[in-house]
Amino acid sequence: MSTFLLVHGAWHCGRAWDRVVPLLRGHRVLTPTLTGYGDTTHLLSPDVGLHTHSADIVRLILAEDLRDVVLVGHSYAGLVISDAANQIPDRIAQLVYLDAMVPVDGETAADVMPQARKAVERALDSDSGFRVPPPPETPEGLFGVIDPADLAWLRTMLSDQPVGALREPVRLDNPAVRRIPRVHIHCTDAPEGFARRPVPAVQPNGNPEVVWELPTGHDCMITTPHELTDLLLRLTPENPN
Protein backbone atom coordinates (compact mmCIF):
# COMPACT_ATOMS: atom_id res chain seq x y z
CA MET A 1 0.00 0.00 0.00
CA SER A 2 1.30 3.44 -0.94
CA THR A 3 0.43 6.73 0.73
CA PHE A 4 -0.75 9.50 -1.57
CA LEU A 5 -1.06 13.04 -0.22
CA LEU A 6 -2.88 15.14 -2.84
CA VAL A 7 -2.58 18.91 -2.46
CA HIS A 8 -5.00 21.19 -4.29
CA GLY A 9 -4.03 24.37 -6.09
CA ALA A 10 -5.06 28.01 -5.78
CA TRP A 11 -8.75 28.82 -5.24
CA HIS A 12 -9.63 25.11 -4.89
CA CYS A 13 -10.05 22.86 -1.84
CA GLY A 14 -9.56 19.22 -0.93
CA ARG A 15 -12.83 18.21 -2.58
CA ALA A 16 -11.17 18.73 -5.97
CA TRP A 17 -9.81 15.17 -5.62
CA ASP A 18 -13.16 13.50 -4.91
CA ARG A 19 -13.19 11.68 -8.26
CA VAL A 20 -9.62 10.41 -7.87
CA VAL A 21 -9.76 9.08 -4.30
CA PRO A 22 -12.04 6.08 -4.97
CA LEU A 23 -9.89 5.08 -7.94
CA LEU A 24 -6.82 4.78 -5.68
CA ARG A 25 -8.47 1.99 -3.73
CA GLY A 26 -6.06 -0.20 -1.85
CA HIS A 27 -3.83 2.79 -1.04
CA ARG A 28 -3.95 5.39 1.70
CA VAL A 29 -5.06 8.76 0.29
CA LEU A 30 -5.21 12.12 2.07
CA THR A 31 -6.70 15.25 0.50
CA PRO A 32 -6.36 18.12 2.99
CA THR A 33 -7.84 21.55 2.45
CA LEU A 34 -5.18 24.21 2.97
CA THR A 35 -5.77 27.09 5.39
CA GLY A 36 -8.12 29.73 3.99
CA TYR A 37 -9.90 27.61 1.39
CA GLY A 38 -13.10 25.58 1.34
CA ASP A 39 -14.45 24.98 4.82
CA THR A 40 -11.57 27.00 6.31
CA THR A 41 -12.33 30.27 4.48
CA HIS A 42 -13.02 31.88 7.85
CA LEU A 43 -9.28 31.54 8.54
CA LEU A 44 -8.25 33.57 5.51
CA SER A 45 -6.30 36.65 6.61
CA PRO A 46 -3.36 38.82 5.50
CA ASP A 47 -1.09 36.48 7.48
CA VAL A 48 -1.91 33.39 5.38
CA GLY A 49 0.77 32.58 2.83
CA LEU A 50 2.84 29.86 1.23
CA HIS A 51 4.56 28.98 4.48
CA THR A 52 1.17 28.61 6.18
CA HIS A 53 0.25 26.05 3.55
CA SER A 54 3.51 24.12 3.65
CA ALA A 55 3.15 24.03 7.44
CA ASP A 56 -0.32 22.52 6.95
CA ILE A 57 1.25 19.67 4.98
CA VAL A 58 4.21 19.14 7.32
CA ARG A 59 1.91 19.13 10.34
CA LEU A 60 -0.38 16.53 8.73
CA ILE A 61 2.49 14.23 7.75
CA LEU A 62 3.98 14.34 11.24
CA ALA A 63 0.64 14.01 13.03
CA GLU A 64 -0.28 10.95 10.97
CA ASP A 65 3.31 9.65 11.08
CA LEU A 66 3.28 9.29 7.29
CA ARG A 67 6.35 7.87 5.57
CA ASP A 68 7.30 7.16 1.97
CA VAL A 69 4.69 9.69 0.89
CA VAL A 70 3.86 10.29 -2.77
CA LEU A 71 3.33 14.04 -2.45
CA VAL A 72 1.28 15.46 -5.32
CA GLY A 73 0.92 19.21 -5.86
CA HIS A 74 -1.48 20.68 -8.41
CA SER A 75 -0.76 24.08 -9.94
CA TYR A 76 0.20 26.56 -7.15
CA ALA A 77 0.73 23.59 -4.82
CA GLY A 78 3.94 22.79 -6.68
CA LEU A 79 5.42 25.46 -4.40
CA VAL A 80 3.65 24.03 -1.35
CA ILE A 81 5.00 20.51 -1.80
CA SER A 82 8.48 21.85 -2.55
CA ASP A 83 8.59 23.93 0.64
CA ALA A 84 7.13 21.07 2.70
CA ALA A 85 9.59 18.52 1.31
CA ASN A 86 12.44 20.88 2.16
CA GLN A 87 11.46 20.56 5.82
CA ILE A 88 10.91 16.79 6.03
CA PRO A 89 12.64 15.20 3.03
CA ASP A 90 13.06 11.85 4.80
CA ARG A 91 9.27 11.40 4.79
CA ILE A 92 8.80 11.89 1.02
CA ALA A 93 9.19 9.09 -1.54
CA GLN A 94 8.15 11.04 -4.65
CA LEU A 95 7.30 14.61 -5.60
CA VAL A 96 4.66 14.86 -8.31
CA TYR A 97 4.21 18.23 -10.01
CA LEU A 98 0.72 18.05 -11.51
CA ASP A 99 0.51 20.79 -14.13
CA ALA A 100 2.28 22.69 -11.39
CA MET A 101 4.67 25.51 -10.70
CA VAL A 102 8.17 24.11 -10.26
CA PRO A 103 10.28 26.63 -8.32
CA VAL A 104 13.91 26.97 -7.39
CA ASP A 105 15.05 28.21 -4.00
CA GLY A 106 13.84 31.73 -3.24
CA GLU A 107 11.21 31.97 -5.98
CA THR A 108 7.61 33.01 -5.46
CA ALA A 109 4.55 32.00 -7.45
CA ALA A 110 4.66 35.44 -9.04
CA ASP A 111 8.22 34.70 -10.18
CA VAL A 112 7.27 31.35 -11.70
CA MET A 113 4.05 32.17 -13.56
CA PRO A 114 2.91 35.41 -15.23
CA GLN A 115 -0.72 34.76 -14.28
CA ALA A 116 0.26 34.78 -10.60
CA ARG A 117 1.89 38.19 -11.00
CA LYS A 118 -1.35 39.54 -12.42
CA ALA A 119 -3.30 38.02 -9.53
CA VAL A 120 -1.03 39.79 -7.03
CA GLU A 121 -1.62 43.09 -8.81
CA ARG A 122 -5.39 42.55 -8.69
CA ALA A 123 -5.29 41.83 -4.97
CA LEU A 124 -3.14 44.85 -4.13
CA ASP A 125 -5.56 47.06 -6.07
CA SER A 126 -8.61 45.61 -4.29
CA ASP A 127 -10.32 46.89 -1.17
CA SER A 128 -8.91 44.10 1.02
CA GLY A 129 -5.39 44.13 -0.38
CA PHE A 130 -4.89 40.43 0.37
CA ARG A 131 -7.67 38.47 -1.37
CA VAL A 132 -7.66 37.31 -5.00
CA PRO A 133 -11.09 36.22 -6.28
CA PRO A 134 -11.24 33.20 -8.60
CA PRO A 135 -10.73 34.10 -12.26
CA PRO A 136 -13.88 34.60 -14.34
CA GLU A 137 -15.22 31.97 -16.66
CA THR A 138 -14.52 32.38 -20.37
CA PRO A 139 -16.04 30.77 -23.46
CA GLU A 140 -13.31 28.12 -22.97
CA GLY A 141 -14.56 27.35 -19.47
CA LEU A 142 -12.61 27.69 -16.23
CA PHE A 143 -9.30 26.00 -15.41
CA GLY A 144 -9.83 23.92 -18.53
CA VAL A 145 -13.19 22.61 -17.30
CA ILE A 146 -15.85 22.94 -20.00
CA ASP A 147 -18.65 20.47 -19.28
CA PRO A 148 -21.61 22.36 -17.68
CA ALA A 149 -22.10 19.81 -14.91
CA ASP A 150 -18.39 19.79 -14.10
CA LEU A 151 -18.35 23.59 -14.08
CA ALA A 152 -21.28 23.70 -11.68
CA TRP A 153 -19.46 21.33 -9.32
CA LEU A 154 -16.19 23.24 -9.65
CA ARG A 155 -17.88 26.51 -8.66
CA THR A 156 -18.99 24.96 -5.34
CA MET A 157 -15.38 24.46 -4.24
CA LEU A 158 -13.77 27.76 -5.28
CA SER A 159 -12.92 30.57 -2.86
CA ASP A 160 -10.56 33.53 -2.68
CA GLN A 161 -6.81 33.06 -2.85
CA PRO A 162 -4.57 34.71 -0.23
CA VAL A 163 -2.11 37.02 -1.94
CA GLY A 164 0.59 36.02 0.55
CA ALA A 165 0.62 32.56 -1.00
CA LEU A 166 1.75 34.14 -4.26
CA ARG A 167 4.35 36.49 -2.73
CA GLU A 168 6.23 34.37 -0.20
CA PRO A 169 9.41 32.66 -1.48
CA VAL A 170 9.80 28.89 -1.43
CA ARG A 171 12.62 27.43 0.64
CA LEU A 172 14.64 24.75 -1.14
CA ASP A 173 17.96 24.97 0.67
CA ASN A 174 18.03 21.48 2.22
CA PRO A 175 20.49 19.30 0.25
CA ALA A 176 18.44 16.20 1.13
CA VAL A 177 15.46 17.41 -0.89
CA ARG A 178 17.51 17.06 -4.08
CA ARG A 179 17.55 13.30 -3.64
CA ILE A 180 13.77 12.96 -3.83
CA PRO A 181 12.63 11.60 -7.23
CA ARG A 182 10.36 13.94 -9.19
CA VAL A 183 7.65 13.37 -11.77
CA HIS A 184 5.96 16.04 -13.87
CA ILE A 185 2.46 15.57 -15.30
CA HIS A 186 1.59 18.18 -17.91
CA CYS A 187 -1.95 18.90 -19.06
CA THR A 188 -1.51 19.65 -22.74
CA ASP A 189 -4.81 21.53 -23.13
CA ALA A 190 -4.23 23.93 -20.25
CA PRO A 191 -5.63 27.42 -21.00
CA GLU A 192 -3.53 30.42 -21.89
CA GLY A 193 -1.79 31.91 -18.87
CA PHE A 194 -0.66 28.55 -17.48
CA ALA A 195 2.53 28.54 -19.49
CA ARG A 196 5.30 26.68 -17.70
CA ARG A 197 9.06 26.87 -17.99
CA PRO A 198 10.71 23.94 -19.79
CA VAL A 199 11.57 21.00 -17.57
CA PRO A 200 15.34 20.41 -17.42
CA ALA A 201 16.68 17.12 -18.73
CA VAL A 202 18.10 16.08 -15.36
CA GLN A 203 16.65 16.11 -11.84
CA PRO A 204 18.62 17.57 -8.94
CA ASN A 205 19.42 13.97 -7.94
CA GLY A 206 21.12 13.39 -11.30
CA ASN A 207 18.43 11.12 -12.76
CA PRO A 208 16.55 12.00 -15.94
CA GLU A 209 13.42 14.07 -15.37
CA VAL A 210 10.19 12.12 -15.86
CA VAL A 211 7.49 13.97 -17.81
CA TRP A 212 4.08 12.49 -18.58
CA GLU A 213 1.28 14.20 -20.50
CA LEU A 214 -2.50 14.23 -20.22
CA PRO A 215 -4.52 15.59 -23.17
CA THR A 216 -6.91 17.62 -21.04
CA GLY A 217 -7.34 20.96 -19.31
CA HIS A 218 -5.64 22.22 -16.17
CA ASP A 219 -8.07 20.63 -13.67
CA CYS A 220 -7.36 17.07 -14.80
CA MET A 221 -8.56 15.59 -11.51
CA ILE A 222 -12.03 16.77 -12.54
CA THR A 223 -11.93 16.20 -16.31
CA THR A 224 -9.85 12.98 -16.56
CA PRO A 225 -9.69 11.34 -13.12
CA HIS A 226 -9.24 7.81 -14.49
CA GLU A 227 -6.34 8.78 -16.73
CA LEU A 228 -4.71 10.76 -13.93
CA THR A 229 -5.09 7.84 -11.53
CA ASP A 230 -3.50 5.47 -14.04
CA LEU A 231 -0.41 7.70 -14.04
CA LEU A 232 -0.29 7.98 -10.25
CA LEU A 233 -0.50 4.21 -9.91
CA ARG A 234 2.64 3.91 -12.00
CA LEU A 235 4.46 5.38 -8.98
CA THR A 236 3.52 2.52 -6.64
CA PRO A 237 6.16 -0.14 -5.86
CA GLU A 238 4.41 -2.75 -7.99
CA ASN A 239 4.36 -0.33 -10.93
CA PRO A 240 7.67 1.59 -10.96
CA ASN A 241 7.87 4.41 -13.54
UniProtKB/TrEMBL annotation:
<protein>
    <submittedName>
        <fullName>Alpha/beta hydrolase</fullName>
    </submittedName>
</protein>
<dbReference type="GO" id="GO:0016787">
    <property type="term" value="F:hydrolase activity"/>
</dbReference>
<feature type="domain" description="AB hydrolase-1">
    <location>
        <begin position="4"/>
        <end position="229"/>
    </location>
</feature>
<dbReference type="InterPro" id="IPR000073">
    <property type="entry name" value="AB_hydrolase_1"/>
</dbReference>
<dbReference type="Pfam" id="PF12697">
    <property type="entry name" value="Abhydrolase_6"/>
</dbReference>
<keyword id="KW-0378">Hydrolase</keyword>
<dbReference type="InterPro" id="IPR052897">
    <property type="entry name" value="Sec-Metab_Biosynth_Hydrolase"/>
</dbReference>
<dbReference type="InterPro" id="IPR029058">
    <property type="entry name" value="AB_hydrolase_fold"/>
</dbReference>
